[in-house]
Amino acid sequence: MISRKRILGFAIGKMLRQDGWAEKYNSKNQFNVNQYDYSTCKEYVNVLKEKWQEYEDPEYELEDYVNVSNY
Q1: Residue 1 DSSP one-character state
Q2: CA within 13 Å, CB half, 58
Q3: Which residue has the higher pLDDT, 56 or 37?
Q4: So what's the pLDDT on residue 60?
Q5: Under 8 Å CB-to-CB from 18, ≥6 apart: which residues?
Q6: Radius of gyration over alpha carbons of the chain, in Å?
Q7: pLDDT at position 21, please?
Q8: Exposed e or buried b per residue across 28-48, where buried means at least 16 C-beta atoms within 10 angstroms of its C-beta
Q9: What pTM was estimated for this model as a whole?
Q10: Which has more confidence, 31 or 2?
């Protein structure tokens, strides 16, 4: 049986990893993306890329010239 302390430790560890994603990829909180809404760093970064695309090129005029994956 898993103890409460172990479950709590797991949850805190997960939140600390998610905080690390936010610090690394969105340290200035430029985009309103909650890191706790995503299970993986890859999902979180993909949403940040989409938000960046919307911010920099809302009409998607540069989509053929700029690959969001590079930023």
Answers
A1: -
A2: 1
A3: 37
A4: 72
A5: 35, 36, 38, 44
A6: 16
A7: 96
A8: eeeeebebeebeeeeebbebb
A9: 0.77
A10: 31
Q: What is the DSSP letter of 71?
A: -
> Rounded to a whole number, what is the distance in angstroms from the first to the last CA of the chain?
45
Q: How far apart are CA 1 and CA 41, in angstroms?
A: 29
Spatial CB neighbours of 57, under 8 Å, sequence gap ≥ 6: 63, 66
What is the reported pLDDT for 69?
Answer: 64
Query: What's 2-69 look like in SS3?
Result: CCHHHHHHHHHHHHHHHHHHHHHHCCCCCCCCCHHHCCCHHHHHHHHHHHHHHHHCCCCCCCCCCCHH
How many residues appear in the chain?
A: 71
Q: Note the pLDDT tens digit of each residue in 4-44.
A: 999 999 999 999 999 999 999 999 999 899 999 999 999 99
Amino acid at 66: V
- Give the separation between CA 56 and CA 6, rounded to whole angstroms: 43
